[in-house]
Description:
The protein is mainly beta. It has strands at residues 4-7, 10-13, 18-24, 33-39, 46-51, 58-60, 68-73, 78-83, 92-99, 113-114, 118-123. It has no helices and eleven strands.
Amino acid sequence: xxxxxxxxxxxxxxxxxxxxxxxxxxxxxxxxxxxxxxxxxxxxxxxxxxxxxxxxxxxxxxxxxxxxxxxxxxxxxxxxxxxxxxxxxxxxxxxxxxxxxxxxxxxxxxxxxxxxxxxxxxxx
Length: 124
């Protein structure tokens, strides 16, 4: 079992930056791939970024490449998402999730463990 708790969401102006983080419980954090997903109001949850269990490999949605960075600190059981040059349409609840796939995964169905989400609001 892995329990995940996100933090760091908030209000930011378009073009600005924000970092969200997610702390996991359990001793086996380093054995899970991790992902960030987001869900805007009235829309389906979508993939944002994923990172492998050892942090060596990452994958991003095309829409965020070059602006978002996913990272992890296995010593702190924490995964981060640094978001730069945010756009209004990226207003959403951002979720972290854990998958037993060591390489991470862009597929929602691969993630049995989810956090409760943190709201990110991008204003004009």
